[in-house]
């Protein structure tokens, strides 16, 4: 603040009476509310406080002991995930950015890592999750071995038990449906809902979008959660083009 005022005066300008706010992104203050009279800025020295003039070396020493600040943490995770800093604010606020960085560094898909942290890890104990196990879970989901619903359930148990996701999935009997079995379930659901299917085939994108959710839900119910939603959607669209 003092340096700014010196620069203003040396540039031939004058200091305006105003409230200034700290701009974290710019790393400087900016003008806020202006003041009309000097009486708004009455200032009295505090008699019980001594003047403090820290040396640059002391300031540097203190700065070296500080943890990485939130803005830098957001920037670091955003760069690793390929998104904007605003998109990882919640992840840093939950103190799960180190988990995300470790998982992404281990080869996990950044989008799925961020999605799980945002939607499925707002729970106690999430910060103690093993990054390698978390990365393995994301890979199981990415490979289609676990559906999104199954991955969410496995993740919840990982937080409480610390077990490997593959072991949890095996214990729960989770395994991906093969293509032939999934096609049979999709065809059965279509046959059970001829009216909705006719609307799905003939409807516009908006109508079809709503009915996609309906059919995916029915297939998930029939398969007891073993079907992959994306695979179901692909099959529905395939069947529509063949109708």
Tags for this model:
2 strands; Arc Repressor Mutant, subunit A; mainly alpha; two-stranded antiparallel sheet; 243 residues; 13 helices; 3 domains
Element order, helices and strands?
Answer: HEEHHHHHHHHHHHH
Please tell me the total number of domains: 3
Biggest beta-sheet profile = 2 strands, antiparallel
The geometry reads as: elongated
Number of helices: 13
Number of strands: 2
- Mean of all residue-level pLDDT scores: 88
- Distance between the ends: 71 Å
Helix-and-strand structural type? mainly alpha
Rg over alpha carbons: 28 Å
- The helical percent reads 55-70%
Describe this structure in words.
With 243 residues, this protein is mainly alpha-helical. The protein has 3 domains: 1-34, no CATH class; 70-172, no CATH class; 179-242, Arc Repressor Mutant, subunit A (Orthogonal Bundle). 60% of the residues lie in helices and 5% in strands. A two-stranded antiparallel sheet has the order 1-2. Helix 5 packs across helix 7 (131-142) and helix 7 (131-142) runs antiparallel to helix 8 (148-161). The radius of gyration is 28 Å and the shape is elongated.
